[in-house]
Amino acid sequence: MAGVLEWDRPMALQQVGTLPHVADDRDPATLMRTYVDALPPGSYVVLSHFFNPGDEDPEAAAVATGWSRRFCTARWHRPIPHARGDRHLLRRPRTHRTRLRDARPLVAGRPAGAPRPRPPPHDRRHRPQAVTPTLAPRRARALTLLDMTTESATSPFPPAAQRADVPPFYVMDVLSAAKARQAERGDVVFLCAGQPTAGAPEPVLAAAQQALRGSDLGYTPQLGIPPLREAIAGHYDRAYGLDVDPADVIVTTGSSGGFLLAFLAAFEVGDRVAMARPGYPAYRNLLNALGCEVVEFATDESTRFQPTPEILDGLGDIKGLVVASPSNPTGTIVAPGELATLTEWCTARGVRLISDEIYHGISYERDVACAWQTSREALVLGSFSKYFAMTGWRLGWMLAPQALHRSVDVLTGNFNICPPALSQHAAVAALSPESCAELDGHVDHYRANRDLLLDGLRDIGLTRIAPIDGAFYAYVDVSEHTDDSLSWCRKLLDDTGVAITPGVDFDPVAGGSFVRLSFAGARSDIATAVERMGTWLRN
Question: Bias category Low complexity: which stretches (predicted)?
Answer without folding.
Answer: 105-115
